[in-house]
Structures are given as C-alpha cells and as structure tokens.
Design a protein that fits this description.
5-stranded antiparallel β-sheet; globular
Length: 90
C-alpha cells in the first residue's frame, strides 16, 4: 500500500489513510492516520467514500448514556479480540 491510499482493517472495518509503511522481520507494517500500525496482511483497499476523519470523541458527542455504554462495550470487545489466539486458548 502506498502513502495516501485508503485502507480498511479487516477485523473492525476501520478505514484510514496510509501515512507510512515499513518491513520489519519479514512483515509489512502500515501506519494509518489514526496513529495505529497494522500488519498489512490484515488490511484491504478502501475507497475515499468510506473514509471519514473521526475519533471516539467525535462519535460520542450528542449520544445519550445508553448509547455511550454500548459504544464502550464495542470498543472493549474489539480490544479483547486482538489478544485471542487461533487455538481458542487465548
């Protein structure tokens, strides 16, 4: 993926703009404009139409408490998901 292209993280659907990439240990790592670095094998091309500059703070403004709690739970599940191993022991 090239700088300036759009990419979607397959696990969460997060879409971002590529800001840098490098190879380390035989793995290509890609940094998106959300300041996170992803293994390129978990990214797929995305379109400019799918891209929206936002943050969790942007999504929380204007929500009621129940909606915020639901968003918090979704973020917690996504965070836990990154630690699950393929063998089910994680």
């Amino acid at each position: 993926m090239q700088n300036g292209e759009y990419a979607r993280y397959k696990n969460t659907g997060t879409v971002g703009k590529v800001v840098s990439s490098h190879v380390e240990g035989g793995v290509e790592w890609v940094e998106l404009d959300n300041k996170l670095v992803y293994d390129a094998s978990y990214l797929e091309p995305a379109s400019a139409d799918e891209y929206r500059v936002s943050s969790v703070k942007d999504r929380v403004e204007g929500l009621d408490l129940e909606q915020i709690e639901k968003l918090k739970e979704e973020l917690f599940k996504a965070e836990r998901h990154q630690y699950v191993t393929g063998g089910g022991g994680g």
